[in-house]
Amino acid sequence: MIQLKHISKHYPVGFGKNEILKDIDLTIFEGEFVSIMGPSGSGKSTLLHVLGLLEEPSQGEYLFEGESVFRMNEKKRTQLHRGTIGFVFQAYHLIDELTVYENIETPLLYKNMPSAERKSRVADVLDRFNIVAKKDLFPSQLSGGQQQLVGIARAIVAEPRVILADEPTGNLHSDQAKEIMELFKHLNEKDKITIIQVTHSELNATYGHRIIQIRDGKIA
């Protein structure tokens, strides 16, 4: 499904360069649940950002279902970024001024979805995550676990085929973290969503089918 070939990422520093990723080769199969682990500064979040088209590598090739992502036209890349890939962040990244309902609806507005279909999709997700009663609240009125549930609801409302999760339970206590990881497991097994998570937690990593270790910008 996803193939990275010789991906490198560096930033200029003075007269030299700071290498973040070094010659990464990686294949992710459809329906996999993959955990990426490594110490702070190892490049794992940068790798996730490259996979999610949030950052461009300095060199290398990224194939999505056999097609070069960097050779896609702008429209197709935008569709891939907004429609096929969902994001879940450690810091939730909810919009403070929007209600739970409006936060979840946001990706559908980007897709220019008709109002009736948007309402149906959001209602389904609110019901599925048992947060119907929270739909008119603002993020500041929710616990961390509830905010992350909303973040995941927003990630899946557009029915992505891939979810990229960056330390999804980093700000949660253990019970909340377990609930979130069980939810990811369910999305992977029942909805067949491919999941790639970056985590420091060895326990969270075991939810994946395989663990990829990154050290100093290289896959160990």
From TrEMBL:
<dbReference type="InterPro" id="IPR003593">
    <property type="entry name" value="AAA+_ATPase"/>
</dbReference>
<feature type="domain" description="ABC transporter">
    <location>
        <begin position="2"/>
        <end position="220"/>
    </location>
</feature>
<dbReference type="GO" id="GO:0098796">
    <property type="term" value="C:membrane protein complex"/>
</dbReference>
<dbReference type="InterPro" id="IPR017911">
    <property type="entry name" value="MacB-like_ATP-bd"/>
</dbReference>
<dbReference type="InterPro" id="IPR017871">
    <property type="entry name" value="ABC_transporter-like_CS"/>
</dbReference>
<keyword id="KW-0547">Nucleotide-binding</keyword>
<dbReference type="InterPro" id="IPR003439">
    <property type="entry name" value="ABC_transporter-like_ATP-bd"/>
</dbReference>
<dbReference type="InterPro" id="IPR027417">
    <property type="entry name" value="P-loop_NTPase"/>
</dbReference>
<dbReference type="GO" id="GO:0016887">
    <property type="term" value="F:ATP hydrolysis activity"/>
</dbReference>
<protein>
    <submittedName>
        <fullName>ATP-binding cassette domain-containing protein</fullName>
    </submittedName>
</protein>
<keyword id="KW-0813">Transport</keyword>
<dbReference type="GO" id="GO:0005524">
    <property type="term" value="F:ATP binding"/>
</dbReference>
<keyword id="KW-0067">ATP-binding</keyword>
<dbReference type="InterPro" id="IPR015854">
    <property type="entry name" value="ABC_transpr_LolD-like"/>
</dbReference>
<dbReference type="GO" id="GO:0022857">
    <property type="term" value="F:transmembrane transporter activity"/>
</dbReference>
<dbReference type="Pfam" id="PF00005">
    <property type="entry name" value="ABC_tran"/>
</dbReference>
<dbReference type="GO" id="GO:0005886">
    <property type="term" value="C:plasma membrane"/>
</dbReference>
<comment type="similarity">
    <text>Belongs to the ABC transporter superfamily. Macrolide exporter (TC 3.A.1.122) family.</text>
</comment>
